[in-house]
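SAMPLE LOG
Freezer: B-3
Tube label: C17
Construct: single chain, 150 aa
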Amino acid sequence: MELIIIRGRQSDGKTTTATMLHNALVGRSTAIRLLKTNGDYLPVWKDVIDFRSVIDIGKKRIAIISAGDDDDSVATEMKELLYEYRPDIMVVCARAYDREGSTYRMLKENYSDIMKPENEFWIEYIEDQDGVMEIKQGIVEKIVNTILNK
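STRUCTURE (predicted):
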């Protein structure tokens, strides 16, 4: 399994970026399983909610976990998705912190063998609301390219 991490501080837009990624992959998918929400496309322009999804693109299976604040919850969700769906690529959001109890530290402790610096994508808060979606879209395109080239 490959691990992709969307990293940033609280309120930087990790869930928004994960939502945009989900929506970008839906158009290429052969099967979609949205867990914790309804519908195939998730709204970006309203209050985004944390979700889990599993998307098949050809023979690749991609799982996305947008919640990245609680390391225990993310660890449990990852185990459930790994057991039930066996994804080839797991996309996980994580706060920027690398300290005890953080999701990022949990990922390092449990998945260090598959963590690669080139698979970490940083999200930063920007006050320019007009440019923020364009910047996030650029990050989403990089992640999509990473997924499609695996």
